[in-house]
Amino acid sequence: MEDFEKMEVFTFQGLQNDMAIFLEKYAVETHVLCPNKQFPKHTLTDRDKRTCRFCGTKNDSKKFKTKSHVIPHLLGNRYLISDVECDSCNSFFGKYENDLAFFLGIHRTMQGIKGKENVPKFNSPNDSVTAKVNNDFYGVKSTEIEMKDPLNKGFSVDMNSGIAQFKYTKQSYTPLHVYKVLLKIALSFINENDVSNYKLAYNFLVTSTLNEKIAPSAKVLYYRLSSNYKAERPFIYLFRKKDPKEKIPTHSFAIYFENILFTFHIPLLSKDIENGLDKGSSDIYYCPPMLGQIPFEGSYERRMIDLSSEIILKNEQEVLSFAMDPQSLKNIKAYNPITEELSDRTFSADGIVKIVLTEHSSQLRIPIKKTL
Ligand SMILES: [Zn+2]
Description:
Blueprint lengths: L1 H5 L9 H10 E8 L34 E2 L11 E2 L4 H18 L2 H5 L10 E2 L5 E9 L2 E8 L7 E3 L5 E7 L5 H14 L10 H8 L12 E7 L9 E7 L9 E7 L2 E6 L4 H5 L25 E7 L10 E7 L2 H5 L3 E3 L4 E3 L10 E5 L11 E2 L1
Parallel strand pairs: 16-18
Antiparallel strand pairs: 1-10, 2-3, 4-5, 5-6, 6-17, 7-8, 8-14, 9-12, 9-13, 10-11, 11-12, 15-16
The structure holds zinc ion.
């Protein structure tokens, strides 16, 4: 993509070097932004001429009736439809999407990503933490997070640094299923002429057992960017190595949705296996978050996630951090919603039962009777 070569990209401080190295090794092969309501259509192969990349079914319009999403609907893609996936593969992969939803935990509710109808509610096992959207919190759309037992201290604030932490438990999921959903997305964007060389990868997706060739590769680098870097619609980058002879994986992939980015290399290309790259020993390069402008504030959290386990993961905890201005924490006032009175009672994070999140710029219309 020549246009891309000319485009300037930026990343967070401390990652510029990683990005320079990555872009020395890899070039963008495909970049796709999910279409929106105004431009929902993209060209699809006729139903009776389609071939399913995953199971090989072809030329049978009866087997390509459903609209399968290239990027799951649950990540916010409504209009990007696949013409390389048959109905039975679509329903097969659909089962893994629950694992992805549980892996993402509270994020979809917090970011307000609409499912088929509304933004999904979130609940921890035993409803210890629940989250839902409230369209009218003093006139403003918000996400409400409730904690059943405040003594669990799910929410804590360091008043000096302003760092708040929120801890909750996810529903059970199988890590390998999450990996399969992500790899499936990547393999849907592969160029037609590379498909036959990824036979083993497509095969891995539709067979249920873990292949020892794939175990070392089933890792993703996860970034959670601060919310001012939220993507309006999901988008992907498929990268290809510049030097075909270099002993690094041919393709690297990145998917962005809301403020989350997953990036990983695509395993099991026949040429890469011939080069011995399936042993988990080759160098892996990951592209840091690519931003359209120099980041002036905010940052990111990142971690490598091993998704190779086929064993169901129960009670996984996630801790989310938020940075608040410590000065504004000191100037905080207390409001009693029943008496509608405002007071200077000192803020304490102990015993918090509910957190309400609103957009940065929103103005709450709070009725105030009197100030104590
Ligand atoms: Zn199929």
